[in-house]
Fold this protein.
Amino acid sequence: MRDFWKRFRYNRGAVIGLFILALVIITAILAPIVFPQSPWKMVQRPFLPPFEQEGLLLGTDALGRDVLAGLAHGAYVSLLVGLVSTIVALAIGVPVGACAGYFAGRIDDALMRFTEFFQTIPSFALAIVLLAIFQPSLTFVIIAIAVVSWPPVARLVRGEVLSLRTREFVEAATLSGLGNTQIILRHILPNALPPIIVLASLMIAQAILLESSLSFLGLGDPNIMSWGYMIGAARTVIRTAWWLSFLPGMAILLTVLALNLIGEGLNDALNPRLTRKSE
Amino acid sequence: MSLLQIRDLAIALPEGADRKYAAQNINFDLDKGEILCIVGESGSGKSMSANAVMGLLPQGVKPVDGTITFDGRPILGLSEKEMLKLRGSRISMIFQEPLSALNPLMRVGAQIAEVFEAHGALTGTERRKRALELLHEVGIPDPDAAIRAYPFQLSGGQRQRVMIAMALALEPDILIADEPTTALDVTTQAQILKLIEDLRQKRGMAVIFITHDFGVVADIADRVIVMQTGKIVESGTADEVLLRPQHPYTRALIDAIPRLTQRKEAEEQTRAPILTVEGLQKTFSTGSGKLFGKRRVVKAGQDVSFELFAGETIGIVGESGSGKSTVGRCLVRLLTPDGGRVMVDGADIAHMSGTELRERRRNLQMIFQDPYSSLNPRARVSRILTEGLIAYGTPKREAQEKARELLELVGLDASAMNRFPHEFSGGQRQRIGIARALALDPKIIIADEAVSALDVSIQAQVLDLLADLKTRLDLSMLFITHDLRVAARICDRIIVMQKGKIVEAGPAGKVLHNPDTEYTQSLLDAIPGQEYERALEGAS
């Protein structure tokens, strides 16, 4: 574990990413305390530019709502969607990939054709269709994102399992009388973990982007303030009040960038032999 | 003036390594046309010393002291650019694993031509002509076809010949060979050794030969250096070091070499067979043969039949690809045989499945070749040892108790329980692997190249341990190996396999000293260091 930190720290970008992410997390946690009022509440005249009035640091939007409060509450939504949808995607992708890789043969063929079925449809289009069918609530946004993002997990896990299942320690476990489930859970998956963790960190970033895009199109939960919604609502006034789109845009950019940097750092720390030479 | 002079060379390891220097106080000379063998076990610094000459040390490892003089010119600390000129043209190197040292996507001819290109020698057509000559010289069968082949189309020995051809391309003064025959079969090894010897005589080239095998040393060395944990403990002419070793470490290494002549005749078997194999068949095929490509079929087991008696050790020997491992894996049902019967205790396990198979298989356990990949890197030793017992219904506490006893049995401390496999050396890991195989109280142990990955002295210890455990626990053993000397040391009977078939079977003494088939004889002839062994016999 200490080695892990040493190698992670070695990648400066990853440390910066971790710092930014920590800020976003703190913002999300503190949002309901610092801004106890609903971010939908109108507090001042519309189009108040940033830094003009005390107590409204980033000004107001087209309906006179506090932009800073919106950003803070949006951070919570983005992180929640990113995290939960990734967990759901892993919960689908890991078992599918593990079974396909371990049992091989017909089961592998069936599961992989099923996975490819999802991969052939453009993921964003599929997410839009799913949300158009179900009602646009936060739960369904998360489900839609998870449904479109599990196939890469399944493929990655399958590849790892395929190479691990022929290793001698797995054969030894078979001879020790262990069942298939035990072998997969205790011997194969723990060794396949590092690339899965790296992929997961990048999937969170992907999910945040997807959620923002869906909210931008007005397909998000109408009761929840999110960064994508803020950009979408401000796009008509971009020439007169550009900061209304710019600020949430920056929030998305920084969060996604932070997660990507962390993903790269995790990759360096968990797969030390693949680390690019620094000199 | 010698061709290469090394004085007081010290190579520092990065901080946090298990010792400060990879090698220190290294002094030796190499003359024109001389073969110098550097012998030592893994981690002795023998490869590092040679790599320093090439200027090819891994990252973080640096020479900190001493000089290397080549042809009257100091070369330690030369710039990368100047080393590039030297490498390949004056000093070249061949490696242990020729497959990973060759570019898989380039034809052999192009790879040899590339060596000339890198040094700006010759024109395009000349390069090709020279490449062909080189392939002739290293004795590749059908060089005209080989020059157009990709590396995967060649056998291990042929690939090593290509590597040697590349190393010789620019007529170097020194060839450094780092364990070039370790990955090869005995027969191929003998051919490569002869090739190196011939080339040395024809070209007057000096050779630094790094190996852990004293048999190989005895066959080719003029002078020998023995290294232990980064220091030279003994050096001298081959005869001095091999026949009159001074240092206790050298003596221990020489004593550890398994001998062909060691074993007494096994007594006639009177007990009942514990394992009977009848007409075992296993065929591997690649490609479906339906739509794409041609179907390739490899017959890894053809009508294999034998009996293993209680308390007996049978050795299955053969070259790689002879199907010996396939047979072992079919017996424990890691592979399912296509036909034939495997009778254990009167029941045929070849076609069982599910719980029935699980119950029967308990009696058959396996020891694997590679102690590094046969233990789950993320599991503690206690889990590795107790897992099987718990899976068969032993309560956890009892299983832990048993695991401690097992560790003691294989000569490890009970404190090993809470450690991870990477905290142990190769020999210790193999002991853990043995303990795991014994955990379920099996009657039959199948050891698949169980000592091939270990150093000679460790090899001897593990073989002794296996022999001891066999008598104490009344086990029967099937010992799969490519090394006839190892088989001679531990086996009562020997089965020789070739291309999936049993070509000869009989008592160890008979098979090893008076074989019926030419194939077995050719395997025996290829064992390195036989004259030396006879010399040792005569001396004692």
